[in-house]
Specification:
322 residues, 34% helix, Rossmann fold
Length: 322
């Protein structure tokens, strides 16, 4: 889960825009090729940025949370989205494929250990990656916590968030016949994978629009129309992952495996009024992770671009400079 593309708010306290010193397409197998870029200081402290979604893609603004004179900033588009190809493809696309991709990127870039920075689904992926590859993770910096549990999906797609945003919820559900509204993930899946690109795009925009409408603390509940290509990848991949319970077996649940990363330090930044990923989840994660510091940010929602969230993340990354 995460804020979809389109918000252009200027955040003056972010580092100035920078260009990558390295861009490449990495063949990760099974027909997938992922976009990878590096920015900042080539010999700096490496930090890999995991975008949200699944299906959100990285953006130039994500480079700006890090001092480019200190950090080696590594971003990539996960399978099926952004500049990675094939676009909106779900075959050979799962959580465990992405974990393997992150390791392949680390090896290709000759990184021994790195910090892992992720928000929303990016935080989910960061935690799973850290639990699978403890020795290479120096620190986790997480925002807008999503752990991929059924209760979280029920909150957002079962009417919980809709009680706070009834007008936006009505728009989201109105495209589905009443007899199918008990399982909106399944109902949207039928349309998002219909084989009719026009129909898929219509429902993809509705899916993305529901999340987009609730992301920012400043939201009016009405989102702009999401570009069709972006929306189709975002909605199809998100729906596919959610339909498959994020490809996590019961014994792979994040909270059940926190002992594996008990010695990895972390920072958790959570918006107090996050309507997509409610603060209870971040609180529960912090309770299970003694080396994590939780910052509950007042007057902030889910979006990375909410100013108080961005300010806190820049503050953390600046404080971590040696």
């Amino acid at each position: 889960m995460d804020k979809v593309a389109g918000q252009k708010r200027s955040l003056q306290f972010l580092y100035p825009p920078i260009e990558p010193f390295d861009q490449r397409i990495l063949d990760v197998g099974c027909g997938h090729h992922i976009y990878v870029e590096q920015c900042g200081r080539p010999d700096g402290v490496p930090v890999v940025v995991l975008h949200g979604g699944p299906g959100g893609g990285c953006s130039p603004s994500m480079r700006r949370y890090f001092d480019p004179s200190y950090y080696r900033i590594i971003l990539f588009d996960q399978r099926g989205c952004g500049r990675s190809r094939p676009h909106a493809e779900v075959e050979h696309n799962s959580t465990w494929h992405l974990i393997a991709d992150i390791e392949q990127i680390r090896a290709a870039l000759e990184v021994d250990r790195w910090m892992v920075f992720g928000g929303s689904w990016g935080a989910t992926l960061a935690l799973i990656y850290a639990q699978a590859h403890v020795p290479v993770v120096q620190r986790l910096i997480l925002r807008g916590i999503f752990l991929g549990t059924q209760s979280e999906l029920d909150w957002f797609y079962g009417g919980g968030a809709g009680k706070f945003w009834p007008e936006a919820w009505a728009r989201f559900t109105s495209l589905i016949p009443p007899e199918e509204q008990e399982d909106l993930i399944a109902a949207y899946k039928k349309r998002l994978f219909s084989g009719d690109v026009v129909l898929e795009t219509r429902y993809a925009r509705a899916w993305a629009g529901w999340e987009n409408a609730l992301a920012s603390i400043d939201s009016t509940g009405i989102s702009g129309e999401t570009p069709s290509q972006y929306a189709r990848a975002f909605a199809r991949l998100e729906n596919y992952y959610f339909s498959n319970k994020l490809f996590l077996a019961p014994n792979e649940a994040i909270l059940s495996n926190m002992s594996k990363i008990s010695n990895i330090p972390g920072n958790i930044v959570q918006g107090r009024y996050d309507m997509i990923c409610p603060p209870q989840t971040a609180w529960g994660l912090a309770q299970a992770w003694p080396k994590a510091r939780l910052k509950m940010v007042a007057k902030a929602g889910h979006a990375l671009s909410d100013a108080p969230i961005s300010m806190e993340l820049v503050k953390i990354m600046d404080a971590l400079r040696a």
